[in-house]
Each structure stands twice: as C-alpha cells, then as structure tokens.
Amino acid sequence: MASRTIELIGAPVEAGAGRRGCVMGSMALRVAGIDATLASLGYAVVDRGDLTPAAVPDIRLPGQARNAAEIAGWTRALEAGGYQSMRRGAFPVFLGGDHSLSMGSVSGIARHAAEAGRPLFVLWLDAHADFNTPQTSPSGNMHGMPVAFFCGEGGFDGILAADRPLVAPQNVFQLGIRSIDPPERDAVGLRGVNVFDMRALDERGAAAIIREVIRTVSEARGLLHVSLDVDFLDPDVAPGVGTTVPGGATFREAHLVMEMLCDSGLVASLDLVELNPFLDDRGKSARVMVELAASLFGRRIFDRPTQPA
Predict the structure, then answer these.
(1) Tell me: domain 5-303, CATH 3.40.800.10, correct?
(2) pTM for this one?
(3) Less Cβ around it within 10 Å: N or C end of the chain?
(4) Could you list the active site residues?
(5) What is the pLDDT of residues 134-150, one digit of tens each?
(6) Is 153 helix (H, G, I), strand (E, B) or coil?
(7) Pairwise CA distance, residues 73 & 13, whole Å
C-alpha cells in the first residue's frame, strides 16, 4: 500500500440487485467503524461521502438489463470518483452498494493505470463470476455483469466511452466461485479468466492461490484492485447478503487472503460490496467486512482487540 491516505467513497446503489437493501450498505460500514478502524492503523482516512449517479438519458441495451440508465449514471460517477482519488495519490475504498458499482470503480482505476503505463489486475472475491451480459443474463440484474463490462464484452454501448481502458480478461483472478450460469462458464473459459472455484480453494489452499496472484502481478509491475463481495464468505460467517451460496470461504481463509495481499504491497484500491443490512444479524456482516479491510491495511491477528462475549 503505497499511499498512507485512504479515501472512503460511498456508493449506495441497489438498482443492480434483485433484492432491496444494499442502499444501506455504505452507511452500515460506517456505523461499524471503518473510518476509525483504518485510522487506528496509522492511515489518514478521508470520507468523501456518498456519490450520486450522473444524469443519464434513457439508455437501452440489447437483451435484459434492468435499470440500465440508473446503473449507467452510477458507473459514470464511480469511474470519475475512482480516477480522481487515484490522481490525488490516495487509496480509494468503495463502500457499496451492489456489485454493479464495480463497473465504475474498476473502470476509473483502469484509466489511472493506463495513464501510469501499468497493467491493472483484478482479484474478484465472490461466489459468482459476474460475467453475464444483457444478452446472456437470465435475470437482467446488472450486479451479475460488471466483470464482462470492464473486460470489454459487447452489449453495454453508451454506458462509458467505447475507447475507455479495459482490463484484460487474463488479468482477472476470481476466487471462491461456486455459482455460475452456463453462458458465463463458457465465456470465462473462452476469454481466459483465471477462475479458482471452491474446489480449487479446498484442494490448493488460499495461500498457494494468492501467492500465484501476487507473483503474476509483481512480475508484470501491475496494480491490483480487490473487489470483495460479502457472499465470498460462507453465510454462517456473513449472512447479510441477498445472494447467499453455501460453502463459502471461512473467516480465517478470508483473513489470510487479506494479510498476504497486505504483505505484497500491490493493492491500489478496494471494493466492499453487496452488504445488505436488512438481511444481516445485528451488524455481524458489516463488522466482518470492516475486519477484513483492516487485515488488508496491516492489522495482524495478534493486534485484534478482544471483543466482549
């Protein structure tokens, strides 16, 4: 982490999801103390507040894409917000909000990386591949489309400029995948996305996989964006998400991932997404997400304060 300044950028978007509630996610992360937690690790933390979507005239995409104009507005606002944060030399942390926000956050970081002459890599910690397009999505929910979008798949004309910097699919690493639609499975295989499903995580272990990611990014002198979805975790660990899939990562596996990424010094930006406080258990998931963010920024297991029983 080169920057000692963290900028919190709220993105209370839920129009990309199939259930309501993610609009409260950014505030729940604040209530859980993300600012004070990261400040306690020696960072200057600046809360930029919540973005508002840009005004976008009605946009029609081929196939199914629910709330496309609203998502386009969020994408443009987040692209600009992420880019400007990186230009200020800060580390942007995007507080979501559903996973459609990554259409904008990753695009903004990609623009900065292109200007810096460095390749951008994305570590996608999620139960889902999110590689659907409006033509392939069975639901039309755009939180299932962000990876396809920032990798340059067709069907998204008009959301951002056609000549925007993209992320090469082979620079995307997906960890924790355990729910994927057949067209997505075909697409990620064809495009060369690096998919480590839960079987790979069970067989190889988190440490070996993350070492591979770190080695690849380091050898390319790349920047790494981490996108952490609540449903990467097992629902017993973090129930506050509208897309629960049993058999997710454990508490310790997730912390190990974050601790190793911290040691690498390669991470430049972070999404915290899909937190739905309406479905949570007394703030449990929000607290877990804040603790994982703390591990990414340098907290070690022996630094964690004891919580009252």
Answers:
(1) yes
(2) 0.96
(3) C
(4) 99, 126, 128, 130, 143, 229, 231, 274
(5) 999 999 999 999 999 99
(6) coil
(7) 10
